[in-house]
Amino acid sequence: xxxxxxxxxxxxxxxxxxxxxxxxxxxxxxxxxxxxxxxxxxxxxxxxxxxxxxxxxxxxxxxxxxxxxxxxxxxxxxxxxxxxxxxxxxxxxxxxxxxxxxxxxxxxxxxxxxxxxxxxxxxxxxxxxxxxxxxxxxxxxxxxxxxxxxxxxxxxxxxxxxxxxxxxxxxxxxxxxxxxxxxxxxxxxxxxxxxxxxxxxxxxxxxxxxxxxxxxxxxxxxxxxxxxxxxxxxxxxxxxxxxxxxxxxxxxxxxxxxxxxxxxxxxxxxxxxxxxxxxxxxxxxxxxxxxxxxxxxxxxxxxxxxxxxxxxxxxxxxxxxxxxxxxxxxxxxxxxxxxxxxxxxxxxxxxxxxxxxxxxxxxxxxxxxxxxxxxxxxxxxxxxxxxxxxxxxxxxxxxxxxxxxxxxxxxxxxxxxxxxxxxxxxxxxxxxxxxxxxxxxxxxxxxxxxxx
Length: 452
Hints:
- By secondary structure, the chain is α/β, with parallel strands linked by helices.
- The protein folds into two domains: 8-221, NAD(P)-binding Rossmann-like Domain (Rossmann fold, 3-Layer(aba) Sandwich); 241-451, Rossmann fold, CATH 3.40.50.
- It has 15 helices and 15 strands.
- The strands form three sheets. An eight-stranded mixed β-sheet has the order 3-2-1-4-5-6-7-8, sandwiched between helices. Strands 10-9-13-14-15 form a five-stranded parallel β-sheet.
- Helix 8 links the parallel strand 7 and strand 8 (217-220).
- The longest helix is centred in the middle third of the chain and has 32 residues, at 223-254.
- The chain is elongated.
């Protein structure tokens, strides 16, 4: 008893108990979704001493984690193996084990429907599972990219239906993932983390959690601000890529090298950030996140014309690439129909094994519809599976001299560092380069190269 007559137990709130467990690495962390975001996060938490349980519907993936078999490039093989052997990190398909964790981090996909509307069904399904097993003193934090309002409008009501009160009995926050696959400089640990809570107490608990493994945590006033921050970051990139892609289209008309223009502009030490043109945009964020914002904006009778225009231009860039291939072939009195096109690189960015939303897939689809004979080489993507909206599937071919020389056109859509572009151009009949990959080849070979 103290002087007020309250017991020490009554003075200890759930938030204080949970923060204390976090500070002493006694909290058990559950990570739902063990993909490009979830597995690196799970490993970082386990490395500093937290016991981590990964949850995934994919039994094969859960089994890989339990055996310490890595499948994400940004995770070090030896670290996952050691953590799995120690039992510091385990994985399961049994969501009933959510009752055994103190922190639940949701890292599930948030794709678009075929009509470019948000698909948050993964978030809804996971929330329904959490609601079955939620207990007093838990922190639930969403990292999946989504539209502003998802945490408070979709997740919160389902969790409070349990009878527990947010900010008192359990804690709910949104903290957007900022994963850049393949980035060797900025990792989960040294990339600043934005955190917004449903209540100030929720924000405080979530901030304490992330500070255990991340160097700089940036609290904001609400989950909606944190959600908007994420979609703004990637909309900013999408819009600026669209600007330089439109410059690419104009420079083509004017006979100006857009790459030279961008490189020259980049020498200005202020007022400009460099973005490069390309065959479109790809990945798990830039082609998707802006559409979450445009969809939500309609609820407020607001039309994001600038953002939607950027999306149109970036899609147009893929059609433009096919047009350029057609123009190059016409110089040899060939059309797309029956032409042998070898596509170099289908990953959405260089030196990674991820082709989600890659513009190369759109371009291959367009070429196939024109009856071109398309093959591809990408050491990082050995197989392209037939996934909607595309119906084609193919395997990567070996980049032999014969494969190069037999193609009517080599189309470079991803600039992987493992490709000898000088060799490719020397053996090729013609090259269309969408990534300026041939910038440093011999001057006498550049006549074979058409840059977009």
